[in-house]
Amino acid sequence: MQTAEIRRRFLQHFEQRGHTVVPSASLVSPDPSLLFTVAGMVPFIPYLTGREPAPFPRATSVQKCVRTLDIEEVGKTTRHGTFFQMNGNFSFGDYFKEGAIQHAWELVTGPVADGGLGFDPDRIWVTVYLDDDEAAEAWHRIAGLPLERIQRLGKKDNYWHTGADGPGGPCSEIYYDRGPEFGPDGGPLVDTAGDRFLEIWNLVFMQYELTDVRSKEDFRIVGELPKKNIDTGMGLERVAFLLQGVDNMYEIDEVAPVLRRAADLAGVTYGKDHEADVRLRVVADHVRSGLMLIGDGVTPGNEGRGYILRRLLRRAVRSMRLLGVDAASLPELLPVSRDAMGLSYPELVTDFDRISAVAYAEEEAFRRTLTSGTALFDTAVREAKAAGTPALSGEQAFSLHDTYGFPIDVTLEMAAEQGVTVDEAGFRALMQQQRDRARADARAKRTGSVDVLAYRRLLAEHGPTDWQAYSTLRTDSR
Ligand code: ATP
Ligand code: MG
Ligand code: MG
Ligand code: MG
Fold this sequence. Notes:
two-stranded parallel sheet, nucleotide-binding, 17 helices, binds adenosine-5'-triphosphate, Alanine--tRNA ligase, zinc ion binding
């Protein structure tokens, strides 16, 4: 089943069950506390927290998401993209646990001929929160799941809140058993790597008012919410790879053409060599993320969103280099990604001149410094090894960044390949100093003199905000 068809079926399923279909919001998060939209619920936060009345009692969407948190997993697991699409259904004080479970079960196991996804019910497992007997009972009664396929997990996996005082509650996740060739029996409780029991859908039951929220697992329940909400997220690419009978999300119809083109350019056969395969999957993933981010108006830069886009594009370019392709690759790969995604996002086609100009210019800028930067890197590694301290200094990483445009994770990746580490904290401190200098300069330009106190004040005010914004993305899992 094509990805576009799964998307269509999802929306249709919920539309038929009284949900308003809401178009995807931008990848640039509508919520100011996040750089990117990391989940389907992000555009609905005002309704879920009760800050604004919801204009509809039920909604459904297929939301474009970016999670930089998962960048290290890309290509190594079967299931993590930096860009992916989250199918969701939402209830704002309308149906609750039973409704959410019923709707999900009907779609997952409903016959293909009737608009369902046709998964074999015998291969479905679910998890519920430790004390959530209500959800466990509903799964047993509504779906007829045997009790041994309803497992209980703690707060780390099966509890959701925003990280601040406010609404929260247990969640319940749906897993698909890919079979014994992918790992031992025992269900998601045992398979912590998630290779055999693949998490496809998270149902969040916003049920309680929480206070004293100190961490994911440390908070206090004040009482029940007057209006309970449902927020769910199903990974479109994960469902697609299962239904398309391929091994992972980089091999689905919306991603694989880029992977194949990259393999052709490099003259390698996908599936022959693990290391090359991971690189090809990274390329396919990052090229698509770059396309979607530029499509939503992000441009490469040294801060915030722009920096993340830069990292993705440059990492893709460097991966192509490592695969043996020295010529510019984005002009070969980006149009392929556009063609694969254009069916669902026609604006990528109409806007492609702009999008491609931004991407190609970024590759050119990186290519101009790649050779000299790599030479500097090699020298630094040689010196570090000779000195018996196999670590690159913060200054060296900073100089690679500042002079040669090597994003920190490109440097980290190159260092790891050479078996050396990098003083990341030192690098960040230097980045911060540079930022502060730039701010003080800008201020000096405005006032005509350098005001030392203002510099201090700026430091206090803006301090590590940019890196905080970056680390916000590291807490986006739920
Ligand atoms: P995982 O444990 O596999 O990392 P998660 O628990 O972090 O997933 P949720 O935050 O529960 O994921 O998001 C809801 C759904 O979105 C997941 O069940 C999954 O299907 C999908 N999803 C999450 N992260 C990704 C990703 N990086 N790439 C593709 N799909 C994803
Ligand atoms: Mg999970
Ligand atoms: Mg989850
Ligand atoms: Mg995750």
